[in-house]
Structures are given as structure tokens and as C-alpha cells.
Write a structure and sequence with these properties.
Blueprint lengths: L1 E3 L4 H9 L5 E3 L3 H15 L10 H17 L5 E5 L4 H13 L4 E7 L4 H8 L24 H9 L2 E5 L1 H15 L5 H12 L1 H4 L4 E3 L8 H13 L3
Parallel strand pairs: 1-2, 3-4, 3-6, 4-5
Length: about 230
């Protein structure tokens, strides 16, 4: 597996614990993805993108099926967005099975690559800043299937600040006793931004990860006081 040197240590440790070899690179996330693809092609191995893969997208669509099983009358489903695999999978199922439900896509303000690609209609370069939502950061691979899929899904979109992400992490810990990473909190933070639109509706929020080190989590809770937008 290829990963950026800036990847969360807790995630790298979990991957290694499963027996995988991790090759770290100082490059940005998109360059790491392209390097991994080239290495796989050169060695005859299969490259699996975290988002630009139809099987990956289809698998993530299973989340929407589980939501519909538990709450058939759901009015809105809220997801965090990085490369768009989760949005594409969940959105495609909802458009087919529950077309009247809102598909709501939330980005960190500091990392809006796919949102810019949706607006441009193609992969485009976006300058990003560090974010608590490290799992959703990084540019989108040229030709990624998630761009067209996201355009067809036409979700409601919103962006949230670092302070709002940190506050959502704190709220989940205090009220639900859940420790989540920044990318999961992005979705809940988006609900806060859209509270007036969602009031009175049956809403499902996808919390898409808890792979965060304790020190980073505690720092995030402290940042609810001192993080500026």
C-alpha cells in the first residue's frame, strides 16, 4: 500500500497490523495515488483506488441500503466528501430507491477538491489547506468516475470550518460517547449548518471513520476553543 507521510499514524498502524506493507511518500495525496497506480501497472498487480473504482463505489452504496432497511421513510442522508466514492455510492442508491430524499454532501472549507470538480465538470486543481478531516483531503484523480456520478446525483452541498468540525467531534463525544475522526464529524457539522432546512425531517448522518489517535482527538477537542476560521 502507498500512503502519504502525512497520513494519520493511527491509520498507518492499523493497516500494518493487518499485515500490509506500507510505502510512505513525501508527495501530496494525488501524486501518491498516481504513483501507486503506475507501480501496480508496472508489476502486473491490481490497483484499487479509494474512490475511483466502480466496485468501491458500489460497495459504499451498501450503506444506503442499510439506511433504507432501518428507515425506509428517510428524508435526507448526509455524507462527508473526499474523492466522492461514498457520495457516489450512497447517492446512486438513494436516487434509485428513494428519489425524493435529499442527498447532502459536506466538505471541509479547507479541502473542496471534488466540489470544484463538480462545478468545473472535470478534474481541476484546487489549493487546499490542512484540515482535521485528513481522510477527505487531496485532489481528485484525472478522469475519476466520481465526478460525473456526483454531477448526476446533484446533491445539496455545504462546507464547514475547522472550528465546526472540532465542535462536532466534541458533541459526538459528549452526547453519544463516540470518538470519531474529523472526516466523520464533517457530516454532523454540516447538519448544524443546514438545521433550518432539515428541521422536522428524518435524517441519517453517515459517520465514516473513527481512526484517530488519542492525542490528535484531544487536541481537536481543545481546538473548539481556540481554532479560528
Amino acid at each position: 500500500m502507498y500512503a502519504s507521510e502525512g497520513a494519520a499514524p493511527a491509520k498507518l498502524e492499523a493497516i500494518r497490523a493487518l499485515g500490509a506493507e506500507v510505502i510512505l511518500s513525501p508527495a501530496d495525496q494525488l501524486t501518491v495515488e498516481l504513483t501507486a497506480r503506475a507501480a501496480a501497472e508496472a508489476s502486473g498487480r491490481t490497483y484499487i483506488s479509494p474512490y475511483n473504482d466502480r466496485d468501491v463505489v458500489a460497495g459504499q452504496g451498501g450503506i444506503a441500503l442499510e439506511i433504507l432497511d432501518a428507515l425506509p421513510e428517510v428524508d435526507a442522508v448526509v455524507v462527508s466528501v473526499g474523492g466522492g466514492g461514498l457520495l457516489a455510492g450512497v447517492g446512486a442508491v438513494l436516487r434509485a430507491r428513494r428519489p425524493d430524499a435529499d442527498v447532502i454532501a459536506i466538505w471541509p472549507k479547507n479541502a473542496q477538491s471534488l466540489l470544484a470538480c463538480i462545478h468545473a465538470g472535470e478534474a481541476t486543481e484546487v489549493e487546499e489547506s490542512p484540515t482535521l478531516s485528513d481522510a477527505t483531503a487531496g485532489a481528485v484523480e484525472p478522469g475519476a468516475i466520481t465526478i460525473d456520478l456526483a454531477i448526476k446525483i446533484d446533491p445539496i452541498t455545504e462546507c464547514v470550518s475547522e472550528a465546526e468540525i472540532a465542535e462536532a467531534m466534541r458533541e459526538l463525544a459528549a452526547r453519544e460517547k463516540l470518538i470519531v475522526e474529523g472526516s466523520a464529524a464533517v457530516a454532523l457539522a454540516g447538519v448544524g449548518k443546514l438545521r433550518d432546512r432539515l428541521r422536522g425531517k428524518k435524517v441519517a448522518v453517515v459517520l465514516c471513520g473513527k481512526n484517530i489517535g488519542l492525542d490528535r482527538f484531544l487536541d481537536a477537542l481543545q481546538s473548539t476553543v481556540n481554532v479560528s476560521d
